[in-house]
Amino acid sequence: MISAAVLCLALNVYFEAGNQPIVGKIAVAQVVMNRVVLKEYPDTVCEVIHQGPTRTNELGEVYPIKWKCQFTWYCDGKSDEPLDSETWKQSLTIASLVNEKVFPDISGGASHYHATSVSPYWSKHLKRLMVVEDHVFYR
Questions:
Q1: What is the C-alpha separation between 33 and 36, in angstroms, rounded?
Q2: CA–CA distance, 126 with 137 (Å, rounded to integer)
Q3: Where are the alpha helices (DSSP H) in 18-121?
Q4: How far is the C-alpha of 137 from the C-alpha of 133, rounded, in Å?
Q5: Is the CB of residue 88 less than 8 Å from the CB of residue 14?
Q6: Which of 1, 11, 2 is nearest to 76 (CA)?
Q7: pLDDT 10s digits, 39-78
Q8: How far is 48 from 51, CA to CA, in rounded Å?
Q9: pLDDT given for residue 22 in this prediction
Q10: How far apart are CA 15 and CA 74, in angstroms?
């Protein structure tokens, strides 16, 4: 059985770095793990990934406010069901290994990343650590 932490982490790897090389997928997963230990973020993998403001609809269902979360895939209004089975299997494997701390932190302690196609306001206030394909990592 897959733990909630591994499932959440795998979804994040799949949607944030599914098209990236393995090193990029590992680094994205490690950013989540690094946030778990930082006092500014929640204490669990799923809470880190789901962090952000929410609303409750008329049925009492809680959902994230569009474009207001930490990881875009979680609040973009699109389906969160993985479609590419090979990428999903690889995401699950990487999530499990990162969750078990099999790899050293190749991200250099990164707590943030973004695609090279954007320039978020917060990136100017953090130390740039590395670039993997089209992701820039910061601490």
A1: 5
A2: 9
A3: 22-37, 45-49, 85-99
A4: 11
A5: yes
A6: 11
A7: 999 999 999 999 999 999 999 999 999 999 999 999 999 9
A8: 5
A9: 97
A10: 9
AA identity, residue 12: N
SS3 1: coil
The residues that bridge with 138 in the sheet, in sequence order, are 112, 128
- 97-133, pLDDT tens digit by residue? 999 999 999 999 999 999 999 999 999 999 999 999 9
Q: Which residues contact 100 (CB under 8 A, 6 or more apart)?
A: none
For residues 85 and 27, what is the distance between their CA atoms, to the nearest angstrom? 21
Placement of tokens 């990881």 in the chain: 71
d(CA 60, CA 2): 28
Q: Which residues pair with 136 in a beta bridge?
A: 114, 131
In tens, the pLDDT along 2-35 reads 999 999 999 999 999 999 999 999 999 999 999 9
Looking at this protein, which amino acid is placed at residue 92? Answer: L
Q: Kind and range of the H or E element at 126?
A: none
**CA 30 to chain CA centroid, nearest Å:** 9
The phi and psi torsions of 113 (rounded to 5 degrees) equal: -155, 160
Question: Helix or strand or coil: residue 4?
Answer: helix
